[in-house]
Structure formats: structure tokens, C-alpha cells
Design goal:
164 residues; mainly alpha
């Protein structure tokens, strides 16, 4: 063990796990090597300190358990405001774009003029008489977007020819 230093053995085993034969070899080696002697003494002091620390008990401060449980509850249930901001970060862009789209569609629907049926070309009056009532009913000879006044409609419906 003169060529091997005690430091290597102490790194592998603790002082309490050394056999009697290993202790004799270490005692012989540290009589010649001061560096290994200091390492062995440090290992023995560490053993004593660890044993004393393991035996020592500490008193728990009053209300320790309640404080720990309260902190755990705080971490488990996030406040509502924090939850709202987390959801907003996740879906804020989507909600904002959908809101903008709805507002745009509302603005377009209220600002655009009323929709009218598509214009149809005037049809030829084949087989129809020149009766104004037929012209009003079938729309012959008129453009589809021509509008009649109420007086014109009433005049066609109650024409003097019907009174005869």
C-alpha cells in the first residue's frame, strides 16, 4: 500500500465500512505519507459530524404544516385573472381576427344599398295583347327594375274597361 495512496481507498469506501486488514494497511501508510494522513483524519471527522447531524433533531416551527399546505394550495389553483391572461395569450389573435371580421361584415351589410334582382333584358311580347293589366302582371315590355307608382297599379287593376 506504499505505492497506493489512502485517498483512493477513501474515495471508494467510507471509514465505517473499512475492514480490520484495511485499517492496518492505512495506519502503516499514513505513518510515512502526511498527505494521506490528513485525508484519513478528514474522513474520520466527516464520519463523526455526519453521525452527530443524523442524531440531532430540529423542532418544527409552529404552524409550519398550515403554511406549507397554504402555499401548495396557492400554487395548485391559479387566480382567475392569471387564467384569463393565459387563455388570452393562447387565443387572443384568433378572437381579435374573428371580431374584426364580424364588425366588417356588419358594416358592409348596413352600408350597402338594398339588393335588387339582377336585370333581365326586355322580352318580346309574343302572343300577348296590348292590355296594360297583362303588361303589369307578366312584365312584358318593361325592364325588371322599372317601378310603378301605386296610382299606376290601381289604374291598371281598376281600369274603366272593367266597369262596362
Amino acid at each position: 500500500m506504499k505505492s497506493d495512496h489512502v485517498i483512493k481507498v477513501l474515495d471508494q469506501l467510507s471509514v465505517s465500512h473499512l475492514s480490520e486488514h484495511q485499517r492496518k494497511l492505512i495506519a502503516e501508510h499514513i505513518s510515512h505519507c502526511s498527505r494521506c494522513e490528513r485525508a484519513f483524519q478528514a474522513a474520520q471527522m466527516a464520519k463523526v459530524l455526519l453521525r452527530e447531524r443524523a442524531v440531532a433533531t430540529t423542532e418544527v416551527p409552529p404552524f409550519f404544516q398550515q403554511k406549507v399546505l397554504a402555499r401548495l394550495r396557492e400554487k395548485q389553483v391559479p387566480p382567475i385573472a392569471d387564467t384569463f391572461w393565459e387563455m388570452w395569450r393562447a387565443a387572443g389573435l384568433l378572437v381579435s381576427s374573428m371580431t374584426a371580421l364580424v364588425l366588417l361584415l356588419l358594416a358592409l351589410s348596413f352600408s350597402s344599398p338594398g339588393s335588387s334582382p339582377p336585370e333581365e333584358p326586355p322580352e318580346l311580347a309574343v302572343g300577348f295583347s296590348d292590355d296594360p293589366a297583362e303588361r303589369v302582371i307578366f312584365g312584358v315590355g318593361q325592364l325588371a327594375n322599372d317601378e310603378m307608382t301605386y296610382d299606376q297599379v290601381l289604374a291598371v287593376i281598376y281600369s274603366p274597361e272593367d266597369a262596362r
